[in-house]
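haha ok so turns out i had the wrong file open the whole time. this is the CORRECT one, sorry everyone. sequence first:
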Amino acid sequence: MSYLALYRKYRPQKFEDVIDQEHITNTLANQIKTGKIGHAYLFTGSRGTGKTTTAKIFAKSINCLSPVNGCACGKCENCLGKNEQNLDILEIDAASNNGVDEIRELRESVKYPPVNGRYKVFIIDEVHMLSTSAFNALLKTLEEPPQYVVFILATTEVHKLPATILSRCMRFDFKLVSLDKLTDLICKILDDSKVKYEEKAVQLIARAGEGSVRDALSIADMVISYANGNLTYDNVVKIIGAIEKDKLFEIVESVLKNDIGKVLYELDKILDEGKPPLVLSKDLISYFRDLLVILTIPEKANKMVIVPKDVFEKMQTQATKENYGIIVRAIEQLSTVEQELRYSVQPKVVLETTMVKTMCAISLEERIEILEKKLQVPLEDKKKISRNFKSLTQNSAVQKNAMWYYGELLKELRTNSEMMTYSALAETIEINKNDNTLLIVVPENKMTECLKESSVLPKIESVSKKLGIKIEISIKKSDIDSISKKLRELFGDKLIIK
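then structure:
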């Protein structure tokens, strides 16, 4: 008998065996108990989360002659027959059968009732791969199939499905399996297989699986073969292609010391070993994340940071409050260049540049802190300076230039709907401030019209008092003699004509 991969050997046969998807399995089991079985289901989620497995269990359970708690009994004639040999359960791979002709054949087979069971179940995997014409051919059948037909669509890319398909299905979203549940499953399988293992090695496999049971078990399979039945942390690191933590420690240590030359040297050394820049970038993000965890929640860090004990102790020396800013900045910088690293013709240069940027970039808070340290101003003196500065900027007219007063004047005019005056002053030719006087030079044609408004002078006087400064308006013209008399009658000594 040929070797059976772990993910196939330990594929769940009951709802209760599907890990971390109770929100779905319980719902499906209850539907079977109550007999409220829908005609079309959509299973969506990341790879290896149990979509196809759950679909097979559900298909078997609804055709079981005597289901137990909404799940197949595993003993009746229908349960003992393999899905591959069951004429009532048809699996279709949409990746290779994505044309309209295949869907037409499916529509023809829908006409025939089930042979042994109560339902004829069509499981269409990777349904997002169907062509547009194939989706259109499926629509009517999916909406109004015969009472004995159940469709189960499975996909990892639900956003590619037409809205018309989505609206006809009962949707179930499969979540990524938690790290703890995945770790427990791997340990159980390794114990059953009589394989020796290190706890940190299993945790690393679980993390590398990224929430996918199939990926995690595939990695475990490879490590077992490589290590000859002895699963260690170092073996897992080698198999998954991760960078050793000691090497990452040296890079990060150089970053924290702002030693650009050492950082570039360490990066070059690792990349010369054949490690892809993208992998190194992800490992660095993971390392800085672990430092952030150690720094912010030290009481839980030992469980959340999956590294050997000696490495953990070394990382604790780097996870200090003084390094908080650069740790966060490194995560931000490295996270933004993932796409660029993936498609760049020179990913090595991109990664090196990113690390240099991380060390060179200093936040505003850090700059202030550095300046304060250099100045070495006592706390009381700093408070005094702060109060004096605030008082100076808020109360001293000396600190406010002509443009500030001019802006305040325009603001008041606009607020009070003095739009004609506002318009005239907005076309100012020149603004000057001497001592306690603000001089505004405006063109004749605009200001002449404003003089007809009786509210102009009182409004300007009101703003003048409010701001604590004298405001003078000068009208610039080539010939003003014809109206000079009228102007002086209105403005008196407040008018200066140039």
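The CA atoms of residues 40 and 169 lie 5 Å apart.
again sry for the mixup
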